[in-house]
Amino acid sequence: ISDQLTLPFNLKKILVEEWEVIAQCGMVHNLPSKVSVREALDSYLESKLAPLLKKHDEDTKRSGSETSVTEGDEQMQINETSLGSNGETKVGKEWIEMVEGIALFFDQALPVHLLFAEERAQYSSLRRQILAQRRNSAAAAKAAVVLSKHHSSEVATNEIGESEQTAFLASDNCNATAQDNPAQLSSAKSPPANFLPERMSEIYGCEHLLRLFLRLPGVVAEAPTISGEKSRRIFSKLGDLVRYLQKNQSKLFQSSFRKTLPGESRRGGKTAGGK
Q1: pTM across the whole model
Q2: What is the sign of the dihedral through the CA atoms of 51, 57, 60 and 61?
Q3: Rounded distance, CA 235 to CA 220, Å?
Q4: Cβ–Cβ < 8 Å for 175, 185
Q5: Contact status, residue 144 vs residue 162, Cβ threshold 8 Å
Q6: What is the pLDDT of residues 108-127, one digit of tens each?
Q7: Which of 72, 134, 165, 257 is a plausible cystine mate for 161, CB 3.0–4.6 Å?
Q8: How does pLDDT run across 134-157, given as a tens digit for each residue?
Q9: Number of Cβ atoms within 10 Å of the Cβ of 236
Q10: In Å, how far are 97, 101, 234, 251 from 230, measured between CA atoms?
């Protein structure tokens, strides 16, 4: 790994032990991970934003008590310049952009660079499940629209009678439909318990994030649009994230392993990091 981004020994040990379990014992990660990459990044972002927002609130109260009425408009302009659309400071925005960039890059890099050969069949299985969910969700949404139109048509037909009778019939029809099709209505309201997220950063855990850190220095070095100064800022923030992962290792690295299922055996090809 580059001198600009160094993994501490205990995080390197996680990568080595993980590789041994997967490559030598024929096992794969149990997915979705207990703590996903997205959850770890959100936790890190919260740790960076909380003190910034607290300081901003304190500064706002202090400046509000010291600023005269005639200076109110000027002070408001200063505050608006310092704040983002959701109240984050400019510094906070940089952390947000960094975290979002890492999550996006992880999603894009995972299938190409971050998987061992033994994990590719599992990834393909996950993608098939996600595509099936998409089709099922679309079908459920279409069925809900058809049901809704059918109910509206029945109510409109019955409106030729007395208003009290119409209200009773409409209520009765809706109740009968709910009893006859509870599964359809339930699926339209909320996803099942085993519903998989669309993004890989919400499925895979922090071990795969460490694999990404092995790739990032080379990617940044080869990017023609990233200057030396910008590169230093990037690695400064990444180094801070690495320290956060190390400090919270027991909380963030909770992956478990399982034996491969039929169809998930190794099919050859390169592993992440060239192993």
Answers
A1: 0.70
A2: negative
A3: 9
A4: no
A5: no
A6: 999 999 999 999 999 999 99
A7: 165
A8: 888 888 777 777 777 766 666 555
A9: 11
A10: 14, 14, 6, 31
